[in-house]
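TICKET: design request
STATUS: open
ATTACHED STRUCTURE:
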């Protein structure tokens, strides 16, 4: 019997060779949404063989046409937005409005990758000797293995599909087994638009087994991963031992500096929206709130007021501002971080507990007086918790802000132009929001510094991680 969420190999939706599967759970109700198929090695071999053929077929399609196909896929997603957004909400939990925004962002990535595909070109120049000609060809890097997470299951996969397919590569993607439906819908939109069926594979299974198998295959030339730092290091080491290039978009723990010259209520309102979006399960989420002492109490009081008023509920229900966490694992992780902070002396200003006993709902939480050794100040929380850290001394605050292995994003709130420039220049992060917490639009190359990643995704260079060059020297 074909499972609800099958594998997609060579254009066929089908179960795994040995019939294995796992339950997909709706995080709002804890009910099963069906089963997701697990790929056996025989399925992966088939997916790899298809990708090898798909690469030859797709790379031969003129970039102008590839661009048109990607743009058509974007239009397909938008045409089906209500159905796909519902799938996203059911499997991931986010409110429908956020799910719709994710579908649109995914379409924007495909469109952008399609635009950039039309600009693929090489270079040609006179060589150093008379009669010598030097050329640089820009070529697809080959078959890509992509591993994508559950927090933005469609948009984070769409980034990788846009770059890889725009460059002319074939791609095998292993999405998160917990959110399989939206990536299958993305793949279907691409196939319907005209991407050759062999050029796209979607496989699920035991993550460590699938990644080891695909990375080791001589058919795979490039690895791209979005997820946690420990898993990123593992995959990068496997790829490195075979000298295969990687792109790594990993975790963050964003310092958010609120200087004493801003309106604390206005800043708290903006930051509550940013903090509780997607239940705080965003790598760019603001996570450590350094607030200058003179406004710290007003900021904290308003943030707590917002947290208490935040409407948490099933994402399908009108009015829900925040859905559940993804799974029981996340619920336990968040509970443990908050319990640890409280045991060390932190004070709960709002939330601090699970909501209800069905669904993985956790209350929007504000913590005050958080001691420096609390785990939440060192480990990525990935949940709706805001630890507030009043500061007096800028140097000391900056030392703490830069003091972790994370280098993804940081935020500065100040109207003092010289001060915020100074702070921005000292912050060791790949994204800095000034009076802003941006999302990632396709026209921007996003990448982490330090252990938060390697390489970028998006921007006018969106195809580059999926390209290689060849130098051709000709004497006439
Ligand atoms: P996790 O590290 O267990 O899994 C994260 C993702 O990686 C999942 O999609 C999982 O299927 C995949 N994965 C795990 N092991 C893998 C392997 N060996 N090979 C290939 N894929 C593998 O963590 P989790 O509990 O699911 O998520 C929480 C953590 O994940 C967070 O703390 C955060 O750091 C990270 N995360 C980051 C992002 C991001 O956008 N950078 C997105 C989601 C999760």
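STATUS: resolved
RESOLUTION: sequence designed for all positions
ATTACHED SEQUENCE:
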């Amino acid at each position: 019997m074909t499972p609800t969420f099958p594998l997609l190999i060579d254009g066929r939706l089908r179960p795994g060779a040995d019939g294995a599967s796992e339950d997909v759970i709706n995080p709002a109700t804890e009910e099963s949404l069906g089963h997701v198929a697990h790929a056996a090695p025989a399925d992966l071999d088939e997916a790899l063989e298809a990708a090898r053929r798909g690469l030859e077929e797709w790379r031969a399609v003129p970039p102008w046409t590839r661009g048109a196909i990607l743009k058509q896929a974007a239009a397909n997603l938008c045409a089906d937005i209500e159905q796909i957004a519902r799938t996203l909400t059911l499997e991931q939990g986010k409110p429908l409005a956020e799910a719709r925004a994710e579908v649109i962002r995914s379409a924007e990535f495909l469109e952008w990758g399609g635009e950039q595909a039309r600009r693929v070109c090489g270079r040609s120049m006179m060589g150093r000797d008379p009669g010598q000609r030097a050329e640089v060809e820009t070529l697809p890097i080959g078959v890509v293995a992509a591993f994508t997470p559950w927090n933005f299951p469609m948009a984070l996969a769409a980034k990788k599909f846009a770059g890889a397919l725009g460059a002319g590569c074939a791609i095998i993607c292993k999405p998160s087994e917990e959110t399989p439906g939206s990536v299958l819908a993305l793949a279907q939109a691409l196939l319907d638009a005209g991407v050759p069926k062999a050029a796209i594979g979607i496989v699920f299974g035991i993550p460590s087994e699938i990644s080891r198998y695909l990375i080791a295959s001589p058919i795979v030339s490039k690895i791209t991963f979005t997820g946690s730092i420990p898993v990123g290091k593992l995959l990068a080491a496997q790829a490195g031992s075979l000298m295969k290039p990687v792109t790594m978009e990993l975790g963050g723990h964003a310092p958010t500096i609120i200087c004493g010259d801003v309106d604390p209520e206005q800043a708290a309102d903006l930051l509550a929206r940013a903090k509780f979006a997607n239940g705080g399960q965003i790598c760019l989420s603001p996570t450590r709130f350094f607030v200058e002492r003179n406004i710290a109490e007003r900021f904290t009081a308003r943030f707590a007021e917002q947290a208490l008023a935040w409407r948490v509920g099933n994402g399908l229900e009108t009015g829900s501002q925040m859905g559940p966490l993804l799974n029981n694992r996340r619920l336990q992780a968040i509970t443990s971080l908050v319990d640890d902070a409280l045991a060390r002396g932190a004070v709960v200003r709002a939330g601090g507990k699970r909501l209800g006993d069905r669904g993985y709902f956790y209350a929007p939480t504000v913590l005050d007086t958080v001691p420096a050794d609390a785990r939440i100040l060192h480990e990525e929380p990935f949940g709706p918790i805001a630890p507030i850290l009043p500061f007096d001394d800028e140097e000391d605050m900056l030392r703490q802000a830069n003091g972790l292995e994370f280098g993804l994003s940081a935020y500065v709130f100040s109207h003092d132009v010289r001060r915020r420039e100074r702070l921005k220049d000292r912050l060791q992060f790949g994204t800095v929001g000034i009076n802003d917490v941006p999302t990632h639009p396709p026209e921007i190359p996003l990448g982490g510094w330090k252990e938060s990643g390697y390489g970028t995704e998006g921007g006018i260079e969106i195809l580059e991680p999926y390209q290689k060059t060849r130098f051709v020297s000709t004497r006439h």
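CLOSING REMARK: The domain at 7-250+451-475 is CATH 3.40.605.10 (Aldehyde Dehydrogenase; Chain A, domain 1). The first strand starts at residue 7 and ends at 9.
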